[in-house]
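Quick review question:
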């Protein structure tokens, strides 16, 4: 049995066009304190209820160094100083919703009081050897790369 379906050309083009025309540029902040890392429990999107690093989109005309400071303040209430860049992460499948390339930074809090915002339902420090099972994006890898970059031997030895 053959079924014929009529589809308008515009609809067909919409169905087969690539999901993402271009990459979104984002930043992520790794904040360590006494062998713990700061994570947020996301309140929206594909990784809702997953733990993620503070971070977000770089706005037009903004450099990534300023973006990570701004995003960290918005999501945690903390003013931070960038210690170093950890790495650039651009795997096309790191974000199932959009093609996001991120730069991760190790940051140190300089002032402010820890508080979340509407993008998260919880915010807390996790022991580095007890990271939550449900983590979003490639943030577990970013944390492990951070530990390698600072020669943290407890988790990355081997």
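Suggested answer, residue by residue:
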């Amino acid at each position: 049995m053959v079924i014929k379906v009529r589809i308008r050309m515009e609809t067909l083009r919409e169905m087969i066009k690539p999901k993402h025309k271009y990459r979104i540029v984002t930043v992520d902040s790794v904040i360590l304190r006494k062998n713990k890392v700061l994570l947020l429990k996301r309140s929206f999107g594909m990784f809702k209820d997953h733990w993620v690093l503070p971070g977000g989109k770089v706005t037009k005309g903004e450099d990534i160094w300023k973006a990570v400071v701004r995003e960290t303040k918005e999501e945690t209430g903390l003013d931070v100083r960038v210690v170093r860049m950890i790495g650039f992460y651009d795997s096309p499948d790191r974000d199932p919703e959009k093609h996001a390339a991120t730069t991760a930074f190790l940051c140190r809090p300089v002032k402010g009081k820890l508080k979340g915002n509407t993008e998260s339902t919880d915010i807390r420090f996790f022991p580095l050897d007890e990271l939550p099972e449900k983590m979003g994006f490639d943030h577990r890898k970013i944390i492990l790369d951070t530990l390698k970059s600072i020669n943290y031997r407890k988790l990355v030895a081997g």
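Why it works: The first strand starts at residue 24 and ends at 33. The chain has four helices and seven strands.
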